[in-house]
Amino acid sequence: VKSWRGVIEEYRDRLPVTATTPVVTLLEGGTPLVPAHRVSALTGCEVFLKVEGLNPTGSFKDRGMTMAISKAVEAGAKAVICASTGNTSASAAAYAVRAGLTCAVLVPRGKIAMGKLAQALVHGAKLLQVDGSFDDCLDMTRKLSESYPIALVNSVNRYRLQGQKTAAFEVVDVLGDAPDVHCLPVGNAGNISAYWMGYKEYAADGVATRTPRMLGFQASGAAPIVNGAPVTHPHTIATAIRIGNPASWRLAEAARDESGGAIQSVTDRQIAAAYKLLAQEEGVFVELASAASVAGLLQAREQGLIEAGERVVCTVTGNGLKDPDWAISGAPAPVTIPVDAHAAATALELA
Ligand code: F0G
């Protein structure tokens, strides 16, 4: 049995690396494509979850970060910087450690989940909380990377999307062809663009016979692409996608239009319901933003955008453990009992 080698080694011939590119990896990718029985029953579709929360730092960002950090090292960078709603910073911090680089991150104060903050800090990133939005943070990191010797590893770095396209390869490699529909949450709009690149590449090379319709879902309080205008004060419980002016806006629109897909919004209420559905009926614990893909699938199916019998992949982008505060706030408080089996039996309604 050969073990998984990370996305650069697994897809080396499809990525912009050479024999001398130093490969900085935590063996990301190779994530499971889990059949979603309950969501399939609800929709009449054949639904799979691409569980990206099982990457090394708990989100899909690792696929792009292995590329961005490897290329940064190849170019001689000593430091990297990113803006983040949390997951990019966690990933950048970990891969920077791996490469021996300094990592700086700018995050919107009070708007990133606790687990992500913990990751960046434990990996030793220089973390600045900005009194502003993610979009403000991204503007600042762009300026800093232009003025100082520090490499930008946000998804405006073209190597990021190259790495992230490997998720589409994996879906086709497992299913034997592209699905009918692929559903994703949309924030800065890099990931939907990366998947579309991957699907197009496999179809152009005859590895797949077709491409899927790409369906992207923004939170209704942070839906610039749906509204057709930037959102100055984006708001949503799904902090990972709380973004008002996505960097890959045009690429995401191209993915939508070329694939015959759609970009829609889903409400926080729909996102929270899908989060609960995944946790309590599929056994898959994701973060809120990730649940937007499934909330969107349910909505699109209801609207007739997806037909019964179609094969659908939903990317669930990040691990539920990223945001323990949200998880606990919505759950019943645990019952405390003495060391007494009878008390346990009573509390468990066994007796
Ligand atoms: N889901 C999660 C869990 C995310 O962290 C993000 C983006 C997305 C979906 C949206 O992906 O930006 O490519 O459209 N998180 C970025 C970050 C912005 O800083 O971690 P996208």
TrEMBL record:
InterPro entries: Ser/Thr_Dehydratase, Ser/Thr_deHydtase_PyrdxlP-BS, Thr_synthase-like, Thr_Synthase_bac/arc, TrpB-like_PALP, TrpB-like_PALP_sf. Its EC number is 4.2.3.1. Residues 24-318 form the Tryptophan synthase beta chain-like PALP domain. Pathway: Amino-acid biosynthesis; L-threonine biosynthesis; L-threonine from L-aspartate: step 5/5. The keyword Amino-acid biosynthesis applies. Keywords: Amino-acid biosynthesis, Lyase, Pyridoxal phosphate, Threonine biosynthesis. PANTHER family: L-THREONINE DEHYDRATASE CATABOLIC TDCB, THREONINE DEHYDRATASE, MITOCHONDRIAL-RELATED. Belongs to the threonine synthase family. This is Threonine synthase. It comes from Thermostaphylospora chromogena.
